[in-house]
Design goal:
DNA-binding; Immunoglobulin-like; five-stranded antiparallel β-sheet
Length: about 600
DNA sequence: GCATAGTCGCC
DNA sequence: CGGCGACTATG
């Protein structure tokens, strides 16, 4: 049944008629299945051919499956894997059945009769390969699935039992004058470190010794030799490859304890490839392929070539096996995404709440912010210009799926890289039920009627609570009341708490701040702030400067005219603005923020 | 001006 | 060491 399914799948994917040029990850599983079928077929073939010490596996070697979940849409078209150029010319290196025969030995396999049409086939065009496979599969089915499966199980096989950890390690340059560290295993933890490991599975009774050569190959197909080098234990000086030898009867498994990746500079790329060629390392016989320029320097795979020696001295080898990709931690294109914090984690279900997110380096053209709860999801809204120096994003919350919620709804927010769909760890965001008077228009009208503008400012400047009130950036278009916008962050709610605004401790304070925020929505006022390098603590600025109140008095602006939603373009904010924002959030409330020297410390984005 | 590549040096 | 941030160079 499985075979039939996979056959159908292959038909669907045009593998069988030789027109498949898809991303390999999409078809990896099918290829795996194919591989096994072909191996099974190969085992039926006649006497084994003597293989070279590290036999060139053929170009037609089915790619190993790397179940990465999703394809990487961003990989450049030129790097898209195409196993063999379709059509006319037969590539001399491609000899489909041969390696399979090489992998076979007289031992335990000779009894298997040669398969129809396999042993004699030396054709290597994409098409004939497909045809050949198609034929084999058909006959395989007639023989019965179980028989084949049994034979698959009998065959010695190199399996990656512990994949390398794909992220978290920097590739080191030689100039960094250090060991390149050790690649860990995927299941490695702080307390229990593991290493990448392989295992020789299947019948090994008569195997005296296996020699495994590890080299780096490109992530994408065809897996070409990669210019980066393996360094560490078992990696002979400057060879860039790792060679280990062991008797599988003692231990089928071998862990690679000290394998580091040393990257070469672009200048030395060609040189390094030459070196690899001179070492006869080209596991997939890709030859001197073109397109080295766009080779992905931030991702590699380990490639294991296994040669074994039988009791009688005969040597044999297996097709190369590759690991999952390993990504350079330093490359933003592939690094782990991380949200450091949001400046607020609550907002109205109507959305449009402007939020500042600090995050690890992202690429502005390849990142999205995803809000999710259950089956609902929506994107945070921002433009590329809202991504600040790769480490901060100003965005607006999407409206929640329901607008008539009566209680708070917690959703998760993640950063997602568009190209590979990689996601960060989630942080929480809480949607609040709709507020019938979001702008508190009624309340503000009341305030205005009760107090003159000037009077109110004086109150503010003199009010003790206000002196501790941090500078508050305007939240234009927010649907929250000022109270909410200032008090959203709840202490202890995930890791956002420490970035949020502290709760107010008095109502008068809130009203003062509301006024300030309204002031800050006046462009002229904001300009003044920038030009005069105001202390980030607004009210303290008022206290310090005798000019401050007169400044407000001289502002010839109509409060009501200027009050209202407008679109804030984050790119207009300069670095100083941003630092101000960030440092405000990092400053504990308990510390008085009235000292000018403290204000002066908060200057540059370096502190981000 | 911005992002990436390559280096340097602190903790 | 080794992990990391930050600096300088380059494109």
């Amino acid at each position: 049944m499985v075979l039939k399914d996979s056959l159908n799948a292959m038909k669907d994917m045009d593998i069988l008629n030789g027109t498949c040029e898809r991303e390999p990850s999409d078809i990896g599983e099918t290829f795996d299945m194919l591989e096994e079928i072909i191996i099974a077929e190969g085992r039926r073939s006649g006497p084994p051919l003597p293989g070279p010490p590290l036999p060139p596996a053929d170009l037609c070697q089915p790619p190993h499956s790397h179940n990465q979940g999703t394809s990487r849409q961003r990989s450049s078209p030129s790097s898209h894997p195409v196993l063999v150029s379709r059509g006319t010319a037969c590539q001399p290196t491609c000899t489909f059945p041969q390696p399979l025969q090489q992998s076979c030995t007289s031992r335990g396999m000779a009894s298997v009769p040669p398969p129809e049409g396999v042993g004699s086939s030396t054709s290597c065009s994409r098409r004939s390969r497909g045809a050949s496979r198609s034929c084999n599969i058909t006959t395989s089915q007639s023989r019965g699935d179980t028989e084949i499966l049994e034979q698959i199980l009998e065959k010695p096989k190199l399996v990656v039992v512990e994949e390398p950890k794909d992220r978290g390690m920097r590739f080191r340059y030689e100039c960094e004058g250090r060991s390149a560290g050790s690649i860990l295993g995927v299941s490695s933890t702080e307390t229990n470190k593991t290493q990448p490991a392989i295992e020789i599975q299947g019948p090994i009774d008569h195997i005296k010794r296996v020699t495994v050569t590890v080299s780096l190959v490109t992530k994408d197909l065809p897996h070409r030799p990669h210019p980066h080098c393996l360094v560490g234990k078992d990696c002979p000086n400057t060879s860039g490859i790792c060679v280990v030898s062991f008797n599988p009867n003692n231990n089928r498994r071998h862990s690679f304890a000290n394998l580091g990746i040393q990257c070469v500079r672009r200048k030395e790329l060609e040189l390094s490839l030459q070196k690899r060629r001179s070492q006869n390392i080209d596991p997939f016989q890709t030859g001197h392929s073109k397109g080295i320029e766009d080779m992905d320097m931030n991702a590699v795979r380990l490639c294991f070539q296994c040669e074994f020696e039988w009791d009688d001295g005969r040597k044999d080898s297996l097709s190369p096996v590759v690991s999952n990709p390993i990504y350079d931690k330093k490359a933003t294109t592939t690094s782990q995404l991380k949200i450091s914090c949001l400046n607020m984690n609550r907002g109205p279900c109507t959305g449009k709440t402007e939020i500042y997110m600090l995050c690890d380096k992202v690429q502005k053209d390849d990142i999205e912010i995803l809000f999710r709860r259950g089956s609902w999801k929506a994107n945070g809204e921002f433009a590329q210009s809202d991504v600040h120096r790769q480490i901060a994003i100003v965005f607006k919350t999407p409206p929640y799926q329901e607008q008539d919620i009566t209680e708070e709804k917690e959703v998760s927010v993640v950063l997602r890289r568009i190209s590979d769909q990689m996601e960060s760890e989630p942080v929480n965001f809480t949607y609040l039920p709709h507020n019938p008077d979001p702008y508190e228009v009624k309340r503000k009208t009341k305030i205005k009627s009760n107090l003159s503008f000037r009077d109110k400012l004086c109150v503010t400047a003199e009010g003790a609570p206000a002196a501790e009130q941090p500078f508050h950036f305007p939240q234009p278009q927010t649907m929250m009341s000022p109270d909410e916008s200032l008090c959203v962050a709840q202490p202890g709610s995930s890791d956002l708490g420490d970035m949020g605004y502290e709760p107010m401790d008095s109502n008068s304070c809130i009203e003062d701040t509301a006024l300030l925020n309204q002031l800050l929505e006046i462009p002229e006022f904001r300009e003044m702030l920038t030009e005069q390098s105001f202390s980030y603590s607004m009210p303290s600025g008022l206290e310090q400067g005798p000019d401050a109140s007169s400044m407000f008095a001289n502002m010839d602006v109509n409060f009501n005219q200027n009050f209202g939603p407008y679109t804030e373009d984050f790119s207009r904010l300069n670095d100083w603005h941003f630092s101000m924002l960030v440092n405000e959030n990092q400053t504990p409330q308990s510390e008085p923020q009235s000292s000018p020297s403290e204000a002066a410390q908060v200057k540059t984005e370096q502190e981000l």
